[in-house]
Amino acid sequence: MKLKKVKAFAPAHITGFFTIDDKYKDPLKKGSLGGGFSLTKGVYTEVKVERNHKWRVNISINGSPAKADVSLTLINEFSKLIEKPYNIDVTHTIELPIGAGYGTSGAGALGLSLALNEALNLGLSKVEAAQLAHLAEVKCKTGLGTVIAETFGGFEIRDKAGAPGVGSIRKFNWSKFKVVSLHFSALPTKSFLRDRKVRLRINKVGRKALKYFLIKPSAEAFTKISRMFAEEVNIYTQRLRDVLNILDKFDGQKFSMNMFGEALFTLVKEDKVGDILSYVNLFRKVGGETIISSIDSVGARIID
To answer: Hey, is 65 helix, strand or coil?
Structure first.
């Protein structure tokens, strides 16, 4: 087999509220209920594959060699579908901060899965390839509901937990809104998913948030209910709490916390973005990074 190169894109994703549903032995049934939205910014993944006498895998992230546990776990799953070894070179280009609640781990896995399926001519459907990405995320404890959301894109409610094809989502056409996010630092998803007390709070408050949101769904309600969820789960850093106290004084615009990251988000109509940035950008002086994105309504895909 000659060298083959394939490139894929998977959108980043922000979750506003959720519940954990990982009681099943089957990892494809594990997942989360909740709500969030995919971004037009995300992860570009390029793979180069070529037959070889033994397996060799190289992975880079934003130009630097990386261990990338989720990508390695995913490639191991693909190796079970292939009889002969390959050279596989993976290049992830990530447009958003890693580990800060933008779903970059899931997006990297999802793009890699679509690209490998295409490059290796395996003939998996998009959903089948996405299931392998979900499996890798669950095994590495880096996410539960991100992959299914990023597979289909848009503004979604995850109303049945599980991988694509097992779980289900309900999409809303709110693409007119822009996402304004303020990032400070990463937070470890694994530690939250392992903390029993945090898990109990997440599930109690998450069920309430989902119920409230579905009474009268809107982008404005989503931001307010996400804030309620973040307040009651109470995993803010002191810096986020201080920043939110200041932001709350401006125009009544609600911000909430990315799940999970030391980062905040809000949703605004395009003609209001400039007003929001006029005060959000003030936090650059204390380490804040402003991120603006539209909502991606397509989901993960192969690109030229």
So the answer is: strand
Number of domains in the chain: 1
The 8-class DSSP code of residue 162 comes to S
Supply the CATH number for residue 110's domain: 3.30.230.120
- Residue 224 belongs to domain spanning: 1-304
pLDDT, tens digit, for every residue of 215-251?
A: 999 999 999 999 999 999 998 999 999 999 999 987 7
Mean per-residue pLDDT for 10-36? 97
Task: Give the chain as a DSSP string.
Answer: ---EEEEEEEEEEEEEEEEEE---SSTTT-EEEEEEEEEEEEEEEEEEEEE-SS-EEEEEETTEE---HHHHHHHHHHHTT-SS-EEEEEEEEESS-TTSSS-HHHHHHHHHHHHHHHHTT----HHHHHHHHHHHHHHHTS-SSHHHHHHH-SEEEEEE-SSBTTBEEEEE--TTEEEEEEEEE---HHHHHH-HHHHHHHHHHHHHHHHHHHHS--HHHHHHHHHHHHHHHT---HHHHHHHHHHTTSTT---EE-TTSEEEEEEEEGGGHHHHHHHHGGGGGGT-EEEEEEBPSS-SEEE-
Q: Tell the residue number behind the tokens 């309430």, with chain if given.
A: 208
